[in-house]
Amino acid sequence: MKILIDYTPAIRQRAGIGRIIRGQVRALLAANPGYDIRLFVAGQVSQAERDDAPLPLHTIPLLSERTLIRVWHRLNLPFPRADWFAGGRADLLHATDFVLPPASARRRVVTVHDLAFIRYPDAAMPSLHRYLNVVVPRSVKRADHIIADSRHTADDLQELWQIPGERISVVQGAVDRGHFQPETNPDTQRAVRAKYAIGERPFILGLSKLEPRKNFARLIRAFHAARNEAHLPHRLVIGGSKGWLYDEIFATVQELGLEADVIFPGFVDDADLPALFCAAEFFAYPSLYEGFGLPILEAQACGVAVLTGDNSCLPEAGGDGALYVDAESVESIGAGIVRLATDGAYRAALAEAGSVNARKFTWERSAQQLVAAYTKAME
């Protein structure tokens, strides 16, 4: 079977969706199901990115990803034709990031990672919200089959858009166990503390792009309340690059006078993540809504206790290895912070349960789910 996969998010997005697509494609190739797989990317690709890819990359260098999407969805032009890359008509085209082109493959599959733009419309830039509300329903309608990152996203597709369950397959992400594992070397932990100017005090780690859906403003308020209630010595470290609508996050820090206690180190290099997780006392991820919750599993694989929300797919990802709170309640988040910060035995037990949970999510399992989804799409 000849399969054409859009590898663009794997190149353009280092974390989140990009990490999932890279892992799934590599696992699919390792599973060796006998497919003839071609990868294409919109826009320019560096030589380093080509070298890092698991297969040669077929590129569309004259068109950026944004321009290509306009060609697909405003002009409805099937450009580039799938047979240009596939050496003949493709049996299956897999659009990996919400947007399905009007291509001529025999079967078309689209991955819908989440429906946050429906559930939390105010958490996205208005232009992005308008765009997603046009292209995602259109892509879902065109697709022969739909892949969801979690059971919860599959349920959202059925509830919000009445998509029949037989048209949806769940293909979950996984953890790179070779990278995300406990880093107990104190020198390595000291080095990562120094690199990100964290200091020697115990700290709680938050990690994600700075945007409203990640709920950092409430986390900061809960941290402030927990410190005052339990006299905690901790700092709060929130790693991640600036996304959108993030002004409230910094304004909350200033309002509460926490400039010395809440640290924003910016984007954290992948190589530093295991040491940073392990240097933290616990990981706080009270997101309002997620499609999969990959950072939960990465923290668990590093042997770190996790606090997260009881919403969307987060319990699906965290299993028995997380403390669940009401992400819309500052009081609930604060109570969770106090418990994890003051109860070392509970924190250790939660970390152990999380490590067991993370081992269930392997890329081999993800590849099996992806092969099953492709098989369904071709029926």
**The CATH homology group name of the largest domain:** Glycogen Phosphorylase B
Distance between the termini: 13 Å
The tally of structural domains comes to 2
Tell me about the biggest sheet? 7 strands, parallel
Structural class: alpha/beta
Q: Please state the average pLDDT score.
A: 92
Find the count of extended strands (DSSP E, 2+ residues).
Answer: 13
What's the gyration radius in Å?
Answer: 21 Å
What would the principal axes of the Cα set say about the shape?
Answer: globular
Strand content: 15-25%
CATH topology of the largest domain: Rossmann fold
User: What's the SSE pattern?
Assistant: EHHEHEHHEEHHEHEHEHEHEHEHEHEHHH
Oligomer: single chain
Q: Could you name the CATH class of the largest domain? A: Alpha Beta
Helical run tally: 17
Q: What is the percent of helical residues?
A: 40-55%
Low-confidence stretches: none
The largest beta-sheet arranges its strands as 3-2-1-4-5-6-7
Itemize the secondary structure elements and their pairings.
Layout: E1 2-6, H1 8-12, H2 17-31, E2 36-42, H3 47-52, E3 57-60, H4 65-73, H5 82-86, E4 92-95, E5 107-112, H6 116-119, H7 126-142, E6 145-148, H8 151-161, E7 168-170, H9 186-195, E8 203-207, H10 216-230, E9 235-239, H11 247-255, E10 262-266, H12 273-279, E11 282-285, H13 294-301, E12 306-309, H14 314-318, E13 323-325, H15 330-342, H16 344-358, H17 363-378
Parallel strand pairs: 1-2, 1-4, 2-3, 4-5, 5-6, 6-7, 8-9, 8-11, 9-10, 11-12, 12-13
Describe this structure in words.
The chain has 379 residues and is α/β, with parallel strands linked by helices. The chain has two domains: 2-174 and 362-378, Glycogen Phosphorylase B (Rossmann fold); 186-358, Glycogen Phosphorylase B (Rossmann fold). Helices cover 45% and strands 16% of the residues. The chain is built from 17 helices and 13 strands. It has helices at residues 8-12, 17-31, 47-52, 65-73, 82-86, 116-119, 126-142, 151-161, 186-195, 216-230, 247-255, 273-279, 294-301, 314-318, 330-342, 344-358, 363-378; strands spanning 2-6, 36-42, 57-60, 92-95, 107-112, 145-148, 168-170, 203-207, 235-239, 262-266, 282-285, 306-309, 323-325. The strands form two sheets. The protein has a seven-stranded parallel sheet, sandwiched between helices. Strands 10-9-8-11-12-13 form a six-stranded parallel sheet, sandwiched between helices. Strand 2 (36-42), helix 3 (47-52) and strand 3 (57-60) form a beta-alpha-beta unit. Helix 2 packs across helix 17 (363-378), helix 9 (186-195) crosses helix 12 and helix 10 (216-230) runs parallel beside helix 11. 46% of the residues are buried. The mean pLDDT is 92.
